Each structure stands twice: as structure tokens, then as C-alpha cells.
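so my prof wants the structure for this chain in the C-alpha cells format not the other one, which i didnt know existed until like an hour ago. anyway here's the sequence
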Amino acid sequence: MDTIASLFSFITTPVSWVIVQFHSVYGKVFGPDTGWAWGLSIVSLVILIRICLIPLFVKQIKATRAMQTLQPEMKKIQERYKNDKQRQSEEMMKLYKESGTNPLSSCLPILAQSPFFFALYHVLNGIATGSTIGVINDSLLASARKAHIFGAPLAAKFTDGSSKVEALGATLTDVRVVTAIMIVMMSASQFYTQRQLMTKNVDTTVKTPFMQQQKMLMYVFPVMFAIFGINFPVGVLVYWLTTNVWTMGQQMYVIHNNPTPGSKAQAAYLERLTKHVTHHEKTRSRGEKAIVKAIVSKGRDRNEFERKFINSLTKVGLVAQPDGNVAKGESTAVESEDGTPTTATPRRQQPKRQTKAQRQSAAAKAADDSAEDAGDADEPKTSLTKSDEPEDAKPATAAKKPAPKPAGGTRSKAQSGQRKGPQRPKSPSKK
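here's what i got, hopefully its the right format
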């Protein structure tokens, strides 16, 4: 153990120094020998490390989204060169170089966090074995060995025997109950974090092998945490549980405010953004402007959720600008499913459906009107009926004029269905 600790001395010394500095602060509040002072020191170490790793986390998000975008092209390369592995790897590297992506970028936060994890593991093991490590001297070592979290010492493990646990001033039952609960919480938080990523923040429009890998990791990682967790000291379980909770909260924030294009999270975000923009008639924050600017720059490459967002703004008389702002406009053009702009036409109003009683009354009224018209038509008109108008008032055009006879016995106009010109004489009828 001394050899391994010496190999990690370049990182164990800074880690132990940070823990001691936080312990000096929390020890004044909770007492120097309490589990709260040492436990919160470990939690504060995690928070400090994760804040320093935020730039790497941003690179991880960008790399993951870039890999999701490249999955269709990668699948084509695999199918085209499935019998030539060397050519397949060359084309893959060429694709990575052209797109400026790096598959290892998605693993940067984990790789950067690993040295701190191993350093803390060796510091806690030094406390369990009673050996000083880093800046932890004999007095701090004795204080750390007295610290308990819900009855379990910081350096105790689930696999420790009763004699070792009793030497740390605890019982085997307390240690195993506390470590089992922490292992379950650690695995559950890892599973929820991965499931949240798969169900909300993955582009559902493209089915790629990347999604199958993520689904597999969603079940593999919690099992790995449960297996390795029984060999971790309580202090390391506190460290890993804290970093899992931090990752879960950090991912929830990213999904809520900067979701992956084409995912369910983007649909929910654009729905909220539509209500916000239509209410205020402008984009207020820098993040909203960045989202609108990215959607406008895509043009016809927008997905269905982005087209719905643009059409919703158009229907209320707003137009998204290339700089991310929103202004009032008179355009009534909306985008179809393929991204082609079309003119919005008002929907035809459907006639209001009548009730059964209204239809029956309308039919009865129509029947009465037809009966009255038939009765008026059946009344005989006699010569004894005097006209209201005098005969002199009748128009002269009413007089019947004799029709002119055609001259020469020829027809002036051809009857319908007959040809013009001379006609063949009809054959004489036989008597």
C-alpha cells in the first residue's frame, strides 16, 4: 500500500490538503471529531472538483451530440466496408477529422475525475490502517478514525470483519446497513441519470447503434457500482454518491435549458419558449436568443418541433430574426412537414349541426309550403275572373305576332342534330 500511495503522492497530497482545510471550517461548527465535519469535507471536495470540471462537461455534451449526428454516416461506412476492417477504420478517422469530433471527448470528465477518486480512496484506506498520508498527521488521523456517519466509520467497508469494525468503534450491523443503503442509492442515482438521458434527451428521429449502446450502459453501470461498492470505504461511497447526485442535477439543468435537437426535451422546451415569446413578444435571455438563432440558421433542415415553433410564431404575427430576436411581421407563410413555405389559408367554417327537433320542424314547414303551392296551382282560371289591370295597361308586346314563313320552301335554320346544307330527299312512302 505504501508503494501505491507513493505513486499517487502527486495527487494524494493536494486531495488530503483540501479535505483538511474544509475539516478545519466544519470542525468549528459540528466539532472536529464528528462524522458531519469529515463527511461534509468530502462532499465539499466533490463539489470543488466538479466545478473545476464544468468546461470538460460542456465539451462532453458537444462531443456526444456530434457523435449522435455522425451515427447515420458511420452506419453507412460500416455497411459499405464491412469486409475490410482497415478501410473501415480509415474512413471513420477521416469522418472524425472532417467533422472535428473526437470519440474520447465524451469520456473526459470521467478520466479527469479518476485521479481524485483514487487519491481519496488511498487517503481513506490510510485512515483505516492507521497510517498517515499526505498532510494528515497523527492528530488528524485519530480524529478521522473517531468520525462516524450514522454509526458507520468513514474507513469501514461492507466486507470488513467484525474485529476490524470493532477496532474502529462500531458494530458490524451498523456498517453493513449503512453501506448497503448507500450502495443502493448510488446505483439508483446512476440508473436514473442514464435513463433520463435516454428517454428525454436523445434524438428519436434517428435510430442508431449509439442508442443501443446507451441503453446497455443504463443497466450495466448500476450493476458495476453495486459490485464494486461493497469494497469501497464509507467515505468513498459518500464521494461517489455525491458526484452521482451532482451529475444528475447538472444533466437535468442541461436537458431543461439546452436539450438535444429532435428529442422529447426539445419539444417541451420549444413549447415553453413559444408561450414565453408570444407573451412578451421578444426573446429576453441570451440562451433564448441562441436557441432561436440556431433554429433560424437551419432553414429547411429544421426538425418537426422547430418547424412547429416557427409556425406558432408566424400565426401570432411574429417573425424569428437571424440574430435570435423576434419582431412583429406581416408574413403569413408557414412551413410544411418537408420545410417548404406555404401560405396559411383560413379553415372553412363547418355548418352548425342542427338538433333532431330542429330538423323535424324544418321538414314539416317545407311540407306545408309545398302543399300550399300545389293548392294554388289546382285552382281553375275562368274568364269571369276580372283582371286587376285594365286591358289598355297591358303591354303591346303581349300581342301574338304571326311567325314568318320561310321563303322558297327551304329551312332558314338547321334543326338540332342535322347538318347544314342541301339534304337528301326522303324516299317516297309506300302505300
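also thought this was worth mentioning. Confidence is low (pLDDT under 50) at residues 380-401, 405-417.
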